[in-house]
Specification:
Blueprint lengths: L9 H4 L17 E5 L25 H13 L4 E5 L9 H8 L11 E6 L4 H11 L3 E5 L5 H8 L5 H14 L5 E6 L8 H11 L2 E6 L17 H9 L4 E3 L10 E5 L5 E5 L12 E4 L4 E3 L8 E2 H6 L4 H13 L19 H4 L2
Helix pairs in contact: 2-3, 2-10, 3-4, 4-6
Enzyme class: lyase
GO molecular function, one term: GTP binding
Cofactor: [4Fe-4S] cluster
Length: about 350
Amino acid sequence: MVVSLPTFDLNQTQANDDSRLTDKHGRAITDLRVSVTDRCNYKCVYCRTGNDGAQYAELPIADYLRIVRIFVDLGIEKVRLTGGEPLLRKGLPDLIRELAKLKTVDGESLDLALTTNGHLLADMAQTLKDAGLTRVTVSMDAVDPDIFARITRVPGSFDRVRAGIRAAQRVGLGPVKVNCVLLRGFNEDQIAPFARFARDEDVIVRFIEFMPLEEDRLWTPESVIPVRELLNRLSTFRPVVPLRANTLSETAQRYTFDDGIGEIGIIAPVSQAFCGHCSRIRLTSDGKIRTCLFSQFDHDLYGRMLRGATDDEVATFIRSTVERKEARHHIGEPDFLKPSRSMVHIGG
C-alpha cells in the first residue's frame, strides 16, 4: 500500500539565503539523524532491558517529511534514518521517496542514509534503493552466531543479518558499513574476526565504544574497550595503517591493513571525544530535538507543530535550539549524569 503524502513545491520551499544552522560554538550543523520509530525487533544488551510491554511513539510520515524539509532548508546536507529499527516502520519507502526529491541549499542531492540491524534488510534492500536511499549501515556486534544471539537476545538471527548486508551490496547501497559496539565481557574476542570479515565481505567495519545509553544501566568505565587495546587486538590479525579523515567532522578514525585491503573505523566518544567538530542534531521518534546524545533535555518541536506553528515558526525554533547545542559531553567526569533517555528512545 502506498501512503498518500502531501506534495510540496520544492522551488518554493528552498531557503532564500545562505544562513546555515550554526551553534554558539561556531560549529556548522549539517547532519540530521531522524528516528522514525522506537520499536525494535532486537533486545541488545547494551540498549534494551529485554522486557516487553513498552509504549511506542511515532509521528505520521507526512510530519517527518515536513520537519526534514524545514531542516534541509536551513542547511542540513545529510539525513540518516534510524530507530529503534527503522525497517519496522510502515510507510518508510514512501518517506524515503519524498526525501530523495529534496535538494540542499546548494542545489545538491541530499545524502540519504539509513541505520538498521539488518534483520529485515534482505527482503527490503531493492525497495529502499528504488525509493532513493543512498547507503546503509548495519549494526552487527559479532561474527560468531552464538555470541551474536547472546548480545541481541534473538536466537538464529545472524544469517539473516549477513544476508541483508549482501543484499544491500548487491543492489548498490554501498559502501556498506557494519557497526560493532564493543562491550567487555561480551565481544572483545570478535575484534580480529571482524577484521577478516571486513576483508572477506568487502564492508567497512566500525568499532564503537560502549556508551552509557542503555536501559539496563550496565555501563561502567571498565566495560569500555579503549582505542589502544582495540588496535593491539587488530594487530594480532595484521598490522594496521591510519588513513586520512574524509571530513573534519567525521566521527571515525580510519585504518586499513598493511596490504591496503579492507577498512576499519574506530569511533571512540568515551576515550577520545570528538565533540569539537560535531555537526549533528537529532530528532526523536516523538518529534523532539536532541542537541547531543547526552543531553539532559528534549526540545519539543512536534508539540509546536500540533499547536499550529507555521514553517517559519518551526524554523525559528530549530535555529534557537541548535544555537544552544552543548560544547561537549562529560562522560568520565565526576559530575556526569546519564542522559534522560536511552539510545532506543533517542535514535541511533
